């Protein structure tokens, strides 16, 4: 029972390898301002404590086949001078993460207290809109739901022609402190203008998952994350609306991943029951292989082929979808998104459209450190049912679509997916 509990805990999360992907229009913009509390200086004793904790966690708990996490002290020695000079959490964290990158795997990251808090309570600060330079001003490319910009009635595609009484030419003109107000002149798509006063604030950064019907035969379901905002009942309602359609497009672009349990929930809606789709390679599995075979192997493909326990679908609340599926992915699609896309391709023959994925698929957990810091560490690898290891190997697409969607114009990814689903070349 104890071993089972530790296994479940180890596979609790699959999380993004990176959180700084450039969002496409319709996704949340980068906040116009990020108001952080005053960052205290770190003394030598605090840094020494954190370094000891990081070494202990990496050496005893982190696992990826073939990676020696006990090399950590070697990586640290090269950065001793920089670490000694680091005075703020951000400076210290930057050096730690530079060293962690030497392991050359995803899902290993050191977070300052602010980042650790935002991980469980994602928030953004500022006005909540993204813009791009236009010859007449700043064109609004995206607006974050629940933000001051969203509540003001400003819409994607409109132009901000003035900010604080001056011609709007640079996005930085829209950066103001939380609590401060900014008057802007907005030009609507019909050419009329109006003045809007915005007050910067702090608000939820969780994006809404959506379903959109296209013509009479297709539906697009967008899933933004497998963690924040993934509510199973809501997801099921989206698919209930989409399932009557002949074609389903699952949009996982810029979805950085999330909880293993949620990706399994989604696959249960789309694949038949009791279908194997992959293998998680854990430390105990590698040990069992060595014991049975009399020789060790750290090759995930070898271990996956030998392993008897596969990840399988189970019965969901809905009858699994029976139509044709396309999955939209890009470089922002990571971890749980990659497992989902690969499973749908290999098991259900789904078409992958867009750009290759990130190639960052390790199950990971978060370990608390002193003073509010956190260390994310990998605990298992993943191999698909047909023997593809996506960690370090971005998943290729069947149909390549370059560029990003533009406000007010057809989405090229969706258009390409529809053409392929309907039998086009």
Please name the defining characteristics of this protein.
about 425 residues, alpha+beta, Pdz3 Domain, 2-enoyl-CoA Hydratase, Chain A, domain 1, 3 domains, 6-stranded antiparallel β-sheet, 6-stranded mixed β-sheet, 13 helices, about 30% helix, disordered N terminus
Describe the protein's architecture and organization.
The structure is a single chain. The chain is an alpha+beta fold. The chain has three domains: 2-120, no CATH class; 123-204, PDZ domain (Pdz3 Domain, Roll); 210-275 and 313-359 and 394-421, 2-enoyl-CoA Hydratase, Chain A, domain 1 (Alpha-Beta Complex). Helix content is 30%, strand content 23%. It is built from 13 helices and 19 strands. It has helices at 2-10, 44-60, 72-77, 80-85, 89-100, 113-120, 148-152, 232-242, 260-270, 283-293, 300-306, 336-348, 412-421, and strands at 109-111, 123-126, 129-134, 137-143, 159-163, 166-167, 181-187, 193-199, 201-204, 210-214, 218-222, 247-251, 276-282, 311-312, 324-329, 351-354, 362-368, 374-384, 399-400. Strands 3, 4, 5, 6, 7 and 8 form a six-stranded antiparallel beta sheet that branches. Strands 10-11-12-15-16-19 form a six-stranded mixed beta sheet, with helices on both faces. A hairpin with a 2-residue loop joins strand 5 and strand 6 (166-167). Helix 8 (232-242) packs parallel to helix 9 (260-270) and helix 9 runs parallel beside helix 12. The longest helix has 17 residues, at 44-60. Mean pLDDT is 88; it is low at 1-39.
């Amino acid at each position: 029972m104890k071993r089972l509990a530790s296994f479940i805990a180890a596979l609790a999360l699959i999380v993004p390898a990176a959180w700084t992907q450039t969002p496409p229009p319709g996704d949340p913009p980068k906040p116009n301002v990020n108001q952080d509390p005053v960052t205290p200086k770190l003394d030598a004793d605090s840094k020494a404590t954190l370094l000891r904790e990081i070494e202990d966690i990496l050496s005893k708990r982190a696992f990826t086949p073939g990676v020696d996490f006990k090399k950590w002290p070697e990586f640290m020695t090269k950065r001793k001078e920089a670490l000694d000079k680091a005075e703020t959490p951000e400076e210290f964290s930057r050096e730690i993460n530079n060293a962690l990158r030497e392991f050359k795997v995803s899902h290993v990251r050191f977070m300052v207290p602010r980042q650790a808090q935002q991980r469980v309570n994602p928030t953004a600060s500022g006005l909540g809109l993204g813009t791009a330079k236009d010859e007449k001003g700043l064109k609004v490319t995206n607006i974050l739901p629940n933000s001051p910009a969203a509540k003001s009635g400003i819409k994607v595609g409109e132009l901000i022609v003035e900010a604080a009484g001056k011609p709007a030419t640079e996005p930085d003109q829209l950066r103001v402190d939380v609590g401060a107000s900014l008057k802007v002149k907005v030009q609507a798509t019909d050419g009329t203008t109006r003045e809007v006063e915005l007050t910067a604030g702090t608000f939820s950064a969780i994006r809404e998952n959506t379903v959109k019907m296209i013509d009479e035969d297709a539906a697009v379901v967008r899933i933004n994350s497998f963690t924040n905002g993934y509510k199973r009942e809501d997801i099921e309602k989206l698919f209930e609306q989409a399932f009557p359609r002949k074609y389903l497009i699952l949009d996982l672009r810029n979805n950085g991943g999330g909880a293993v349990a949620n990706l399994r929930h989604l696959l249960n809606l789309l694949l038949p029951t009791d279908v194997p789709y992959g293998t998680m390679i854990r430390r105990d599995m590698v040990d069992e292989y060595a014991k049975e075979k009399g020789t060790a192997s750290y090759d995930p493909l070898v271990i996956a082929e030998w392993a008897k326990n596969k990840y399988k679908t189970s019965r969901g609340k809905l009858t699994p979808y029976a139509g044709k599926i396309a999955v939209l992915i890009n470089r922002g699609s990571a971890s749980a998104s990659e497992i989902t896309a690969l499973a749908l391709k290999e098991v259900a023959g789904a078409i992958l459209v867009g750009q290759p994925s990130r190639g960052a698929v390790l199950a990971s957990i978060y370990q608390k450190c002193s003073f509010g810091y956190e260390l994310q560490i990998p605990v298992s690898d993943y191999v698909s049912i047909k023997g593809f290891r996506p960690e370090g190997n971005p998943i290729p697409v069947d149909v390549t679509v370059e560029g990003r969607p533009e406000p007010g114009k057809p989405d090229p990814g969706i258009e390409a997916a529809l053409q392929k689903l309907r039998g086009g070349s």
